[in-house]
Write a structure and sequence with these properties.
Largest sheet: 9 strands, antiparallel
Distance between the termini: 17 Å
Radius of gyration: 19 Å
Strand content: 25-35%
Helix content: 25-40%
Number of strands: 9
Length: 215
């Protein structure tokens, strides 16, 4: 009997692209002062750092803030973090943008990561052979698969990583990155326009999971 594959969501990210962010603003104190975190989210001080080029604030519940000159991102690592904190993390990111309206923001992006543990490399090989023959997917080296996809008027990139022969891992990973660009006119009502884009996250997540389950 063929193995029933179930890809599970294991990570998410929300990203604001801009010209330019100031990474040095992102500190534990800034997030606390402006209430961009819940009081019971414990900071992992050893994994957090602040600098002029890149900064990050790591929480012990799987949430990670990162900032460089081009991207401000909130990552949710782990199934529990995705299930419990995605909505809060998105709202905190958009509130961060409200505090800095003078920055030229370019897009609001959403990323998903799902994975599936297969019982054997032989079953992974069968899965990979199906992908290579899929008309919408482009095989790359190392059994990686990428495709430019559309969901309505939203462009997104699908990427599938399959273990190479000789690797010990039996995990197949699928990434989906959705891009929601901001127009020049969006800056006039930036907060409202970003929240309209943020309101599409549930539909994007559903579409990503439906796509992964179709392979």
């Amino acid at each position: 009997m063929a193995e029933e594959k179930t890809f599970e969501l294991v990570a998410m990210r929300f990203c604001i692209q801009a010209n330019y962010h100031n990474p040095s603003i992102l500190t534990p104190r800034f997030l606390t002062t402006y209430k961009l975190r819940e009081d019971d989210w414990e900071i992992d001080e050893g994994a957090s750092q602040t600098g002029a080029v890149i900064s990050q604030v790591q929480f012990k519940n799987g949430i990670l803030w990162t900032a460089d000159w081009m991207r401000l991102q909130v990552w949710l690592n782990g199934k529990e973090a995705c299930e419990k904190y995605a909505e809060k993390a998105k709202d905190f990111l958009l509130k961060y943008v409200d505090l800095l309206p003078h920055v030229q923001y370019n897009s609001f992006d959403v990323g998903f990561k799902s994975s599936q543990l297969f019982s054997s490399l032989q079953q992974i090989a069968g899965f990979a052979n199906k992908l290579v023959k899929h008309p919408c997917l482009t095989p790359e080296k190392k059994l990686g698969i990428t495709a430019d996809m559309k969901f309505g008027d939203i462009s997104w990139l699908l990427r599938i990583e399959v273990p190479e022969r000789g690797q010990s891992s039996n995990v197949v990973v699928i990434y989906g990155d959705f891009f929601l660009p901001l127009k020049d006119s969006d800056s006039e009502n930036l907060s409202d326009n970003l929240r309209r884009k943020g309101g599409k996250v549930a539909d994007l997540k559903k579409h990503f999971l439906e796509t992964t389950s179709s392979f």
